[in-house]
Amino acid sequence: MFGVTISLTEKTPSELTGYLEKMKRLNADVVFASVQIPEENAETVKENLFQTGAYIREHMQEFVVDVSPRTFRNFSADELKQAGVTGLRIDNGMKAQEIVRLSEAFKIVLNASTIDDEQIGELKDAGYRGDFEAWYNYYPRKNTGLDIRYFVRKNEWLFSRGIETAVFIAGDKEMRGTIFEGLPTLEAHRTMPPLQAYLEMKHLYGIEKVILGDFGLQPDTFGKLEELFGSGIIRLCTENTEEKSILNMIHHNRVDVAADVLRSNEYRRVNRRQFEPGRTGARPRGTITIDNTGYGRYMGEMQIVLTELDADERVNVVSRVAERELGLLEYIKDYEYPFVLTEE
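The line above is the sequence of Outer surface protein; the predicted structure tokens follow.
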């Protein structure tokens, strides 16, 4: 499940609904916002919340807002409900009895980094009987995102207790203030391409709910995610492509997965022509090659190199995957995603 973050102070309702309409093309069904705001902005935020919430209630599945005891100086629980809010992410300082009361009207989301058995015990002692989720924070300041080893250990603890969780990944266009350096959960994801960060969260860490922390995606990134969510295809940009016939067709890695290369299952079958020896040379990771006549019956096989290989006079070097997209290759290999090669 994919989600987005909105700001009720930085955007107008029309801007927010326009943004949400666009993000529906990425199957976004979860919306997260904070209503922990200065009292002088309360009326503006309340108006924005109601107008945007009307769209969310009609078109999205979940609307979760960040709350603390201070929130309820400006909003009542009934007002949040009327605005279309379906879940509350509980910040520090809220007592167990109050969380239990709120759980009668809202899904409860706890802080994944701070939740422990003691807090769960306190909730149960206070009469909490339902399920809840635990979402991680996003971290605006560089170098403060979560450590991967800590994240893995915490996930093991959460999963062992059957607690569903959610994470944030950074965007790559309109970064949110006030620092404008991305809003990821993991520090390793701060500058990682959003598509790769999404795939890593889903496949390496088993996270089903991934939320975009920032406001924007570059058009190319948006297109890549739209293609992934719509048809399950990973699109790879290439550089220095000499053999145009490899472009804009759907390739599948062979089911008998090779150790060092991706092997296109389709290319040789649809390009039955002579490939004479051409440019050869060392084959670093991401090099795209076609076997020439020197390889006999393998002539015409297209490969993408996963592990650096030496030059081979039987193998023509015809293109290269863009450096920033090399991290996507493992997901094609390990999770059987079809892929399409395009030119920058």
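Note on the example: The chain has a mean pLDDT of 96. Residues 42-59 form the longest helix (18 residues).
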